[in-house]
Write a structure and sequence with these properties.
about 325 residues; mainly alpha; ABC transporter involved in vitamin B12 uptake, BtuC; two-stranded antiparallel ribbon; cell membrane; transmembrane; Amino acid/amide ABC transporter membrane protein 2, HAAT family
Length: about 325
């Protein structure tokens, strides 16, 4: 069997090699597909921190993805139309600067995760799943009714935002930004998993009563993991909106939350490169099978079914011969 560290290196190297080869043979659309996969993988990495380490099955993580997207959309919309943002007594001009937009998306998503986590973590099991789903639906229908920013039709951004020293309109350069963000998120997850925080969080996930006995606070640990998870997913939402130059209420949909969970399960729950493998497979099936049928999700469902029945550790679990954490 192959060591997981080698698999992680091979997956990331292969993922980087695809757009480089596409650049050589002048296939810019393939680079765009790779960028989409990188952004979805980044969102799934965020969820994987809550799910894989904390054991929190959230059906509302699209809230943070959507908030990140709308943070980007609103700031860019006001910048391109020279309309100031009115926040009570504060008046803030919009911006096309990616670093500022990313910081805003992370802070907004982290704050939302803090509030949602404080309420949701009072419950466990299926009740936690349902309350996160409820929050997701609340934000979804609010965005539909938010006519100032397009409502159900969404909001278009005509020109991609800017990053110092990078031409973001060049596909390979924008991919580089997204891939770098993904690598940073994977590094954060790896450090969290190996840190004392990751160990005590894993202990709180498996045996919360014993964790409380030794003086740990499982809710506080899970809340911190939930906030970090939401912040990373919010960053992915901002990048996704920039990739498409469009934001819409579908970014808050529960189907997106479910897809992120599916990506993690396919690759391997709690596995470092699990979301990367899952997102790459998802985008590949969506692109190639989607050309022949609108029902390509059937094949994705079949793969998921086989993994759940015969490979609980996902694709990485098959390669390493080890199951992932049980949630």
């Amino acid at each position: 069997m192959i060591r997981e560290g080698y698999i992680n290196a091979i997956v990331l190297f292969g993922f980087l090699l695809i757009p480089i080869c596409a650049l050589i043979i002048e296939e810019p659309y393939t680079i765009t597909l790779a960028t989409r996969a990188a952004v979805l993988a980044l969102a799934a990495v965020g969820l994987n921190i809550a799910l894989g380490i904390g054991g929190l099955v959230s059906l509302g993580h699209a809230v943070f993805f959507g908030l990140g997207g709308y943070a980007m959309g609103i700031l860019a919309f006001h910048a391109q139309n020279y309309i100031p943002v009115e926040l009570g007594p504060l008046t803030i001009n919009g911006t096309k600067s990616m670093p500022i937009i990313w910081l805003t998306a992370v802070l907004v998503s982290a704050f939302a995760a803090l509030i949602i986590g404080l309420l949701s973590l009072r419950t466990t099991g299926v009740y936690f799943i349902m309350i996160t789903l409820a929050f997701g639906q609340m934000f979804f229908f609010f965005s539909i009714s938010w006519s100032a920013y397009g409502g159900e039709d969404g909001l278009s951004i005509y020109v991609r935002n800017v990053f110092p020293g990078v031409n973001t309109l060049v596909p390979i350069q924008f991919f580089g930004l997204c891939f770098t963000a993904l690598c940073v998120a994977l590094f954060v997850q790896s450090r969290l998993r190996a840190s004392i925080f990751g160990l005590v969080l894993n202990s709180a996930r498996q045996t919360p009563v014993r964790a409380e006995t030794v003086g740990l606070n499982p809710m506080r640990l899970k809340l911190l993991a939930f906030v970090i998870s939401g912040a990373i997913t919010g960053l992915a939402g901002a990048l996704f909106a920039d990739l498409n130059r469009f934001v819409s209420p579908t970014m808050f949909s529960w189907q997106l939350s479910g897809e992120l969970i599916v990506l993690i399960i396919i690759g391997g729950v709690g596995r470092l490169a699990g979301p990367v493998i899952g997102s790459a497979l998802f985008v590949t099936l969506e692109h190639f099978l989607g050309e022949f049928t609108d029902f390509w999700h059937i094949w994705l469902g079949l793969i998921l079914l086989l993994i759940v029945l015969f490979a609980r550790g996902g694709i990485i679990g098959i390669l390493t011969g080890k199951d992932g954490p049980h949630v």
